[in-house]
Structure formats: structure tokens, C-alpha cells
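Hi there,

I know you've been waiting on this one. I reran it after we fixed the sequence typo, so this is the corrected version. Both the input and the resulting structure follow.
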Amino acid sequence: MDLHNPAPVTVDQVVHALSVLGQEVVADPEYRPDGPTEDDLPELLGGLLGRVEFEVATVVDPSDEPPSALSDLQGGWRTESDNPEVYRAVLVNRLQRTAFDISAALGEDTADEVGDLGDVELDADEEDEAGPPGVAGAAACALGAADLLAAQAAVDQGRARQAVRALDSVEGFLAQALLTVHLLRLQLRAEEEHEDD
């Protein structure tokens, strides 16, 4: 879905927002003598998003009873739009980013492999190449969820061929996730047997 934003944020607005939040943006004068440009907008938005998500993580505890802060956060997020298609697009984007962020946040160099997880099968010998099974499996689950939302959107819009492709991808990611569960169980069993020796 192509989203149209009638009032997109500008580079200057994002730089100002980051500055207000204590994150100064310094452009390399050799490559950006006039400061950040439109080409820098995705990275700048990523910095702003990272700052906001960090704040959310420190303020909102989903396990609180009652989860009032989480409810307030979700209510605030929904004020941006009342269009379900916008929600779906944002959620798909968030899930795809999450799949890559899982590896980066856990200090694993697996982000390059994550996009192909649905198309490959790993055996125990290949485990090291794709990172720890729990990390790879979590990324596969996020990508599977994104593709499942995309499949539902395609079904809703009568695009059968795209729906089938998305569902095939979902099945691949789910198979990968199940395999990583199996690999983690094998790892646990091996550690238990080692402790018994």
C-alpha cells in the first residue's frame, strides 16, 4: 500500500526534535556542507524513533497490573490516524524492522541472514552461521507476522497471487521458527547431559 502523507515532516523539523531531546545532529562538513539533506531523512527519523522507543521502554511496563501506561501509549499512538490501512502498514513496517533489530540489539551479526530465513533450513552444523537459535527464531516470527498481515491485506483486496506468495513466505518463517525451537531444546539437553557427567 502506498501511503500518502499530506504534511510530511521536514529534515529541519526532525533535526530540531532530536536537538530538543538532547541528541545533536552533526553533519560531516565534507559531504554535507549545508547540513543534513532529504537523503538523510530515513536515518534522522530512525534516530528519533530510537529515542522515542527507548523512552517508551523505560516508561511503559506491559506487565503492570493494570497496564494503564501501555493503554495510554496505545491510545496516544492511535490518535495519529483512524485508518486501519495505515495501522496495518505501520505494523508491517514495525515487524520487519523488529526482525532486523532483534539481531542488532542482542549483539549478533545475523541481520544479513534474517531476510532469507524463510527460504532456508538450518541444521545444527549451520546454526553458528545464522546466530543463536533463539535470536534467529524470534526474527523469523516477526517476519512471519509481517507477512501474515500482508497476506490478509492481499486476501481482503482480492489479490490472490500476492496472498499465496505471502502465505508461502509465512510458512517458511514458521518452519524456521519451529526449527530454532528444536535446536534450543537440543542445546538444553546437551547442557543437562554435560552437567550430569
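Quick highlight: Confidence is low (pLDDT under 50) at residues 110-128.

Best,
R. S.
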